[in-house]
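Q: I have 157 residues here and want to know how they pack in 3D. Can you give me a structure?
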Amino acid sequence: MIVVEEFLNGLFEDLPLIDGYTTIYKWGNKQHLLRQLELFSKEARTIYPLIYQTSNSSVQGKQECETKLSLVLACQNTNVDLTNEQRWMLSYKNILYPLVENIENIFRRSGSVTWTNSYTITEFPNYGNGEENFTIDKWDAILLETTIKITNVQTCN
């Protein structure tokens, strides 16, 4: 059996720095995400840029698995008064889209991921503004959705 979260954790450890920061990878549901944000805040540590996996199902086969990934890519941006052009330059151009490209590259180079090189992205500027969204931090975010097949992974049986 291949544990998707364990595989991605190892894979994402090799992502290059984004804007001088190491990307953090976590997974779980809404409650876990809020708890993680609170813990990092109490420790005065940054959790950004963040890859947060909300998907958790996979089809397992003999030494392979296929999974539909839902990854939230987020960076903190506390200035809610930015124009779209400013937000694009600060968050999307400098952090979030380079992170998408890094994920594409690491999937291609891993030797263990097969995918169609296609994905769906949805932008969420000013996500978590304290009113209609559930996050306690103010984010700019991208939802990246794709399906990958993981093979050639050394597992202990």
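Q: Anything worth noting?
A: Strands lie at 24-27, 50-53, 58-61, 64-76, 113-114, 120-127, 139-151. The chain has three helices and seven strands.
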